[in-house]
Protein 1
Amino acid sequence: MLKHNLHPSDHLGFGVGLRSVHFSHILRHWPAVDWFEIISENFIDSAGRPRYVLEQIAERYPVVMHGVSLSIGSTDPLDFDYLAKLKRLAREVNARWISDHLCWTGVAGRTTHDLLPLPLTEESLAHVIARVRTVQDYLERPLVLENPSSYVTFAADTMPEWEFLSRVAAQTNCRLLLDVNNVYVSSRNHDFDPHEYLRSIPHDRMQQFHLAGHTDLGTHCIDTHDGRVVDRVWDLYREAVGLTGGAATLLEWDARIPTFDEVHEEALKAKRFVGGTEPREVFSTGYSAPSTRPPNHIPHPSHLVSVEAE
Amino acid sequence: MTAIAAELADLQRWLLAAITEPIGPETAAVEQRLLPSREQSAAERLAVYRSAYVARLLEVLREQFPCTRFAVGDELFDQFAAGYLKAHPPNSYTLARLADKLVDHLEGTRPADWGAFVVELARLEQTIDRVFDAAGPENLPSYTVPEIAGDSLTLTLAPGLELHAFSYPVSTFYTAWKSRLQPSWPQPQPQFVALLRRDYIVRRHELNRPQYELLSGISRGMPLGEAVAAGAAAVENADSEKLAAEFSDWFATWATSGFFAAPL
């Protein structure tokens, strides 16, 4: 039984992030996937194959738009041209919801194309709340905000991230996309208890879950989206499903992307945790061992569509 | 912006510089603003973002210019790319716009002994990228030029079709690279190319100079007669009867390849 106030049709099931390397496979096989999540920026300006593929997919599957450039926490003005493109695409592909991250990506007219953390202060909170309200008014729908992975914390912080997110949700009526892998990665990087995070967020605001792989470098973890979900993250997912009653769940795989079937198979593992009665199983390699690879892994997001040319 | 948000803005400007500037901030300045974790110092944690910034953007440029990268080698490409990113840091919400000024930057910074080859090769790759995702002809009806077309007929090139003149055979080089033939840098030789997307795949059509001049005339809105004259003017020692037959063949080929949209 759902513990949140979502409409049942919002519980889309177990989806896969749409990536250009899988376009041909999807158009050829129309796999039995519950839903797709797109990276909004890959499609809002497209008049070519990415857009064509998306239109075909949107006719057959529920589609959710997930962005990386809203920069809700930036002190630069909101980009209303960008928002207009989001709104138009959402209408054209009947996007079930629009999500982005609790972060900022740049300032002073520049961007890093990274999801940068905010200082968790009352000042930041007021700033984000005001901007979420503006964005929601413009989009005419609730925004769905995701907790990012982060690698620094600020001396100015006065509250934990879960409190910040909870207060944003309470005061804006926005919804939450809980990236369970990000909770784990940030808990490792910032020495907090991920279970406390899960217990403390508002379970009735949960719209969606993200799952992904990461790279464990021993001293810290990086959200690389380049492998399978590790067992500790599955454990947290099971706990989150138990606390919230479950929500639409999406697997992200953005680097060293395997075949579509392999990605889909990884996403479907999440089904075993719905209902909360399944015993813990070892799916991947047991607990993730620290990587011995050099620390040059690129955190999500990196979102360029590959060109097809003869 | 409120005074409170101005404090946030100050911190964001500092962190942006700390991440993107080639030389990072002093350790004391980092420790004043960022906390250590149990395993990492504040500076080590900041370094995650610093290395990711460069790595992510370099990866995008490598992916957008794979043939140019092959031509100059990985190390030199990365040096130019890093210089470009320093001179033109990203300012768009989309990575697809990251390289908008790369060709101009290459032109302004390339070694003199490179000639224009690398710049033109990068321009070709950038054009392929643009044509791939621009408005194209896929949803438009095909158009065949009537066999007896009057000189006053104005043709319209298919949406997204681009014509380019190069001083090096960069399209030939690109084809050889795509075929994994490890081509060497070519000698200067004019090359004319039409780039057009069909069925969502970018296709290159190599042209001769008269073809290029003719199609350029059409793209500038010349009536057919004037455009044909512009093409004919580029033919040396033209035999008018032979030329007319050739032009007819060209138009048939181009129409089959989807070069034309219905006339205005």
Note: Residues 42-64 of chain B form the longest helix (23 residues).
Protein 2
Amino acid sequence: MHVPDGFLDVATSAATAVVATGAVGAALRGARSELDDRTAPLAGLVATFVFAAQMVNFPIAAGTSGHLIGGALAAVLVGPWAATLCLTVVLAVQALLFADGGLTALGTNVTLMAVVGVWVGYAAFRLAAAVLPKRREMTALAAGIGGLLSVPAAAAVFALLFSIGGAAPISLSTLLGAMVGVHTVIGVGEGVITALVVGSVLALRPDLVRGAPDAGSRAPLEVRSGSVA
Amino acid sequence: MTAAPARPAISNRLGWGLALGVILLVAGVLSRWASSAPDGLERVAEDHDLAGHAVERVGLLSYDGPSALIGLGVVLVIATALAMVVRARGR
């Protein structure tokens, strides 16, 4: 869902650039508590994996494809602040070197994927993880649910932005329906990939997964085993 | 209810090798079968004429072939360096 140049007007693009800049500034501070000697290198790997995975479009219907956004995945693995930074690096490299996503739309794309994608994905993950049993498979499932919901959420925000400053006249409800519809299907792919990757990392290196059920000592807000009967 | 302790099943070195292997596999092999159909946003933009005066840009690099590897390297270096700087500030 990389928005190209010219989709949104200057004012809307400027507004999303301000939001994106503020979010990245906050993430630079917030990520301090998430990244330690062991997880900082993981953040580099997570960003690189997301970049690689975003190159692989999977077909979802006749003449339509989708690809991983990776916001929920990154948030579960390295924490949401660090995930915002990871996705921002990916989006900046894509826009600057690969002309994937517009330059004037970089703030929009960071807002949609590095902010909405990451934080909606993370919030949905935390909610699902709080409800589900505290087991690794359930953590992977919760991550998948986060991934699934993050994509239509970003699509919905795009529709809102386009209704404010879009280059073409279209009713919000029409665009919202179209965007959320197709991106819910893409979200299923996002959810499956997210669950598979989180499950694999949990099996091999659970100590590196910030959202792991037993990451309590490193994540103060994580669910406490024992206090929930 | 208590989860098993977070004990690593593989070493750092094997983990790095495995991660880089998976990344190269995704970028180098899986990408050959990537769908070239328009993505969700492009599909909606086509169906509903959203493009306005959108202009196609040509990138310095392309995802096809070895220049994708440059992209991977650039992301790895920048994201790792950024994470290291943020971590250093946090101490």
Note: Chain B has a mean pLDDT of 89.
